[in-house]
């Protein structure tokens, strides 16, 4: 096997987040479950909801893109494959990702629809409720894959959110095969219970076929995947099928079961939760960076918790503090 050119190559939705503060009553008014994600299926629907937003803040996002941006901030070599349109938001997304130190060279898509956007409402308790118009990102074709880039990444990282549209789903299946043929690992994040409700069968098949080496989930996603209500039973069921299972549990910390060995860490203390957008993404960034550095699972989990704590201390899903300094505190 040749030496890896990147620690992680990620494939995901290329999205620009638009964040605004909102009261719980507004979340009820628009009919979205608080703390969840729903899809918007037309630019008109997105425009109508955008018109109801208070003053917003634009920040480049996308789950897998947030993860590799966090890893780059930690010093990892990362790359991203995702599709934007030839418009202003597409330019914003590409600029922000490259400025963060992530290799990004996917060709833009001409014409409609526009670059994907996610309208995020943050309530006073820091919970984020997401409303996503997938736009150009949902048409990522297999032809857009940089096969050499994928084969050169030590880990291929995929987000469950992008599994929903047919075209990128096929692209990700092809990417998994490229990574496998090159002897690389595949990491997968379940992303949201919504994704499991629509594609749980596909996810379970990937796991059963041994195509996932590292699986990321939060507690609710794990229960949905395992089709059960008992956390310990779900951990036992899923961890028996993947080499490494990582589960975040909000204020209860996180666990990992790696090759049958279980490790748990507490949540990193924080004065105030401002915005939970990107918490899971940056947890994955810390864990994967630790693994890329050859750290043990416990230390990797601790870095994940520390990175998640940094993200939820401010608005937006891209780090504002020096993550290298955060990592250095772990010794």
UniProtKB/TrEMBL annotation:
This is Adenosine kinase. Keywords: Kinase, Transferase. InterPro entries: Carb_kinase_PfkB-like, Carboh/pur_kinase_PfkB_CS, PfkB_dom, Ribokinase-like. It comes from the Bacteria. CDD domains: adenosine_kinase. Pfam families: PfkB (PF00294). It comes from Sphingomonas tagetis. The lineage of its organism: Bacteria, Pseudomonadati, Pseudomonadota, Alphaproteobacteria, Sphingomonadales. GO terms for molecular function: kinase activity. Residues 57-319 form the Carbohydrate kinase PfkB domain. Belongs to the carbohydrate kinase PfkB family. PROSITE patterns: PFKB_KINASES_2 (PS00584).
């Amino acid at each position: 096997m040749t030496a890896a050119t990147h620690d992680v190559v990620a494939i995901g939705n290329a999205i620009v987040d638009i964040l605004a503060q909102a009261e719980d009553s507004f979340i009820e008014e628009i009919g979205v479950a608080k703390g969840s994600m729903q899809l918007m299926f037309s630019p008109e629907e997105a425009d109508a909801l955008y018109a109801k937003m208070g003053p917003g803040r634009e920040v480049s996002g996308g789950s897998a893109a947030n993860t590799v941006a966090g890893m780059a901030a930690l010093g990892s070599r990362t790359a991203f494959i995702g599709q934007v349109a030839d418009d202003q938001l597409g330019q914003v997304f590409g600029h922000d990702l490259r400025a963060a130190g992530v290799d990004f060279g996917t060709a833009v898509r001409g014409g409609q629809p526009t670059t994907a956007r996610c309208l995020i409402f943050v309530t006073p308790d820091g919970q984020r409720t997401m409303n996503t118009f997938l736009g150009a990102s949902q048409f990522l074709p297999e032809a857009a894959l940089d096969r050499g880039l994928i084969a050169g990444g030590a880990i291929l990282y995929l987000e469950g959110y992008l599994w929903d549209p047919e075209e990128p789903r096929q692209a990700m299946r092809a990417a998994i095969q490229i990574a496998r043929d090159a002897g690389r690992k595949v990491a997968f994040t379940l992303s949201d219970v919504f994704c499991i409700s629509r594609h749980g069968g596909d996810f379970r098949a990937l796991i059963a076929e041994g195509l996932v080496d590292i699986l990321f989930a939060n507690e609710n996603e794990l229960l949905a995947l395992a089709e059960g209500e008992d956390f310990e039973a779900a951990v036992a069921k899923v961890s028996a099928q993947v080499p490494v299972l990582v589960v975040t549990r909000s204020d209860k910390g996180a666990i990992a079961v790696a090759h049958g060995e279980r490790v748990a860490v507490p949540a990193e203390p924080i004065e105030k939760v401002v915005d939970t957008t990107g918490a899971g993404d940056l947890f994955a960034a810390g864990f994967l960076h630790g693994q890329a550095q050859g750290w043990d699972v416990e230390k990797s989990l601790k870095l994940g918790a520390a990175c998640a704590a940094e993200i939820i201390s401010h608005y937006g899903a891209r780090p504002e503090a020096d993550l290298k300094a955060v990592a250095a505190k772990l010794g």
